[in-house]
User: What shape does this take?
Amino acid sequence: MTAKDPASIAVDALSEDEARVELERLAREIAHHDDLYYREDAPEVSDADYDALRQRNEAIEQRFPALVRDDSPSLRVGAAPSEQFASVRHAVPMLSLSNAFSGEDVQEFVQRISRFLRLDEDEPVELTAEPKIDGLSISLRYENRRLVTAATRGDGFAGENVTANVMTIGDIPRRVSADDMPSVFEVRGEIYMTHDEFAALNAQQEAAGGKVFANPRNAAAGSLRQLDPEVTARRPLRFFAYAWGEAESLPGDTQWAVYEAFRRWGFPVNPLMELCSSAEELLAVYRRIEETRSQLGYDIDGIVYKVNRLDFQERMGFVSRSPRWAIAHKFPAEQATTVLNDIEIQVGRTGALTPVAKLEPVTVGGVVVSNATLHNEDEIARKDVRIGDTVVVQRAGDVIPRSSPSSRRSGRTGRSPSCSRPSARPAAAMRCARPIRARGASMWCAAARAGSSVRPSGWSGSSTSSHATPSTSRGWATSRFPPSTRTG
Ligand code: IVH
Assistant: This one.
């Protein structure tokens, strides 16, 4: 009998030896994806798949605390700064946030705060609720109200010096005229790109034979991390402030008061931020923003909740790489990768033929999907999609074929590389990527990342979930986000 691959064993069933092997594999794999995401601005797995790796790592570490490695992903954020830029040591580390995925997680978070602070059960704790911007974080150091250094997060302790590039971003003041900014103050926040500007940039890049970006986040990161600031100056980068690093003093004693100061000082602060005093109120904000998310014009991937009082934040402190006083409540993932098991042709009542992709079941946006209707057979043939290929399933109902090592497990040798095979010739493939304009930005992203695309009209009606079954009649194919099926 051959030994089972530890990667395929449930966490609860792992022996100690298997867990050790699995933690080593996960450390390597997560470091590889961090490198692609943070240093190359070119991820090869979806955020959901990446989160799943991290969650598995954390679950194994919880079961076997003695096996936590020195290089464990749970003790690290981001990736080491690229050698192409000078390195900047952060006076105050730029850490990460732990995640909540459900309403219960949020309720537990609020209860944990009360317990930690030993507050009476009925004493409300004020929290801010604000969009989690899907861009790249930046630390802006002001001395005597002048911008002196801008640094990316890097590994949280040292980042890349991108000062000259940041100086070209219109949203970021080079000089603050309000005189109540302390003499040393680091404003932190997110650099991002809007959907429209991302699409226009990609169209321009494609026409010029340049690099086409996978999504607005990668476009923002790639645009900022340019060696020539003149290139950055031509890119439509924007900024939201939401945190701070080293500060000689603070302009208030709540998170909210600091946001008000940011506004006074000329920094954009997200207009959807709200103050709440219970888990229920936080969840109501979450639902409201999730519903309008598709109309925001920029990507957000969840809602961040933060304890408002700064003295409470200080008392609560940090655990490993994240503060105890804040949490990121993630939206259900919009994309996941899976394997195309078959393509069947369905004959409709009118005799219309519809190809249906039979997929290895995968959870996307809280719904298990095993079938997806593909509406353009020519496109499938043209893109050379084959059984056994790894495809990206998009929440709006799109299935995007993507080559990956696992996509060749079937053992068939491929034809000569063409531009629809990004793994064979990534640069050429990126240039071939064709944005699909009908569907909104995240469609383009996926298509660009995949290097090729298939445009199904929506899911077929046979998802295996107990949740509402997605179908074209519910309009998922035209609106990017389905109605929420979750309480949180
Ligand atoms: S607060 C100590 N607020 O999410 C942590 N982060 O996983 C301070 N992000 O690295 C971060 N929107 O890049 C915070 N409103 C927001 C955010 C936000 C996006 C990013 C940020 C951070 C990551 C945490």
User: Anything to note?
Assistant: DSSP finds 13 helices and 19 strands in the chain. The radius of gyration is 23 Å.
